[in-house]
Amino acid sequence: MTNLLKGKKGIIFGALDENSIAWKTAERAHEEGAQFVLTNAPIAMRMGQIKELAEKTNSEIIPADATSIEDLTNLVDQSMEILGGKLDFVLHSIGMSVNVRKGRAYTDENYDFTAKGWDVSALSFHKVMQTLFKKDAMNEWGSIVALTYMAAQRTFPDYNDMADNKAYLESIARSFGYFFGKEKNVRVNTISQSPTPTTAGKGVKGFDGFISFAEKMSPLGNASALDCANYTLTLFSDLTRKVTMQNLFHDGGFSNTGVSQEIVDVFQE
Ligand SMILES: NC(=O)c1ccc[n+]([C@@H]2O[C@H](COP(=O)([O-])OP(=O)(O)OC[C@H]3O[C@@H](n4cnc5c(N)ncnc54)[C@H](O)[C@@H]3O)[C@@H](O)[C@H]2O)c1
Q1: Hey, how many other C-beta atoms are within 10 angstroms of the C-beta on 7?
Q2: Domain limits, the chain
Q3: Which of 21, 131, 164 to mutate to test ligand 1, by most ligand atoms within 8 A of the CB atom?
Q4: Most-buried pick from 96, 122, 134, 139 (CB within 10 A)?
Q5: How confident is the model at residue 215, as a pLDDT?
Q6: Would residue 100 be called left, alpha or beta, if left means φ above 0 and alpha means ψ between -120 and 50 degrees?
Q7: Alpha-helical runs (H) found in the chain
Q8: pLDDT category, 205, cuts 50, 70, 90?
């Protein structure tokens, strides 16, 4: 432990169970001396085990649907009250596609489902930041991070409409990052993570084959949820103050690999 986040305060969205990337991030942030509020959608509170995490990390839980401005306003107000001041970091670790859940193909989208998934997975990031911005809730040199996937740049057929949601999410990070940088000296980035066995990850069709493929393609192997948590912490720390408006690949080298020897071997007679 290095006390990398000693004295820092924040909000962590999206810890559902111990596999969640947000769960690992909360555990590691706690170990590094941070204080934070945990939040998730009210329905996820009932299904998940967030209370266990709150006890372990000495943190309070405030339910909020990330698509509701009313919930987000209450979350930000209450968090500043509980933590005793403005925030240094926020993690947006939220994703959900209704089309994926209901088995609708990309070529057969139900557009009500599409709109809902976009609101939850992409627009919610803007809503979170707009709420923080208007309330002037971030300390100078604070850091805001959202999680994304490389399907925003390249096609992965089974990722469905989440690919479009991630492209939109990454664009919001750049656009809001400009204003947050200029006016508040706050940085905004997305981390593009390897496939990871979580509830959201495993919801993607063919996930098992896909994660094995990525493992064989990546020179360093897939990045785990814990690896992602550690990388996220560096972006919350004071060591990365001038990194902003970036989409940062955290994938063991997958995104820059054309083909690996292991994959060639599979096709070589
Ligand atoms: N698992 C992967 O393979 C992978 C790869 C790259 C990026 N990501 C991204 O990482 C992030 C975290 O996902 P995860 O893999 O830890 O899965 P997860 O299922 O553990 O987390 C997703 C979270 O989103 C929350 N959520 C859904 N709707 C919400 C709403 N309306 N308001 C507030 N919260 C809501 C869920 O309750 C859950 O806690 C997501 O953005 C996901 O797209 C995941």
Answers
A1: 9
A2: 9-267
A3: 21
A4: 122
A5: 97
A6: alpha
A7: 21-31, 42-47, 50-57, 69-83, 98-101, 111-118, 124-134, 162-184, 199-202, 207-217, 225-236, 261-267
A8: confident
What are the pLDDT digits (tens) for 77-94? 999 999 999 999 999 999
Q: How many residues make up the chain in this entry?
A: 269
Q: Which two tokens stand for residue 254?
A: 């997958």
Indicate if ligand 1 lies below 6 Å from the C-beta of 199: yes
**CB contact set of 110 (below 8 Å; sequence gap of 6+):** 98, 99, 102, 104
95 touches ligand 1 (CB under 6 Å): yes
Q: Which CATH class is domain 9-267?
A: alpha beta
Tally helices (H) and strands (E) across the chain.
12, 7
Distance 92 CA to ligand 1 centre (A): 9
Tell me the pTM.
0.98
Question: Is the shortest distance between the CB of 247 and ligand 1 below 6 Å?
Answer: no
Instruction: Read off the pLDDT of residues 140-187 as tens digits, 9 standing for 90 and up.
Output: 999 999 999 999 999 998 899 999 999 999 999 999 999 999 999 999
How far does residue 13's CA lie from ligand 1's centre (Å)?
A: 9
pLDDT mean across residues, the chain: 96
Write the pLDDT tens digit of every residue in 98-123.
999 999 999 999 999 999 999 999 99
132 pLDDT above the threshold of 80:
yes
The token pair that represents 103 in the structure block: 């088995």
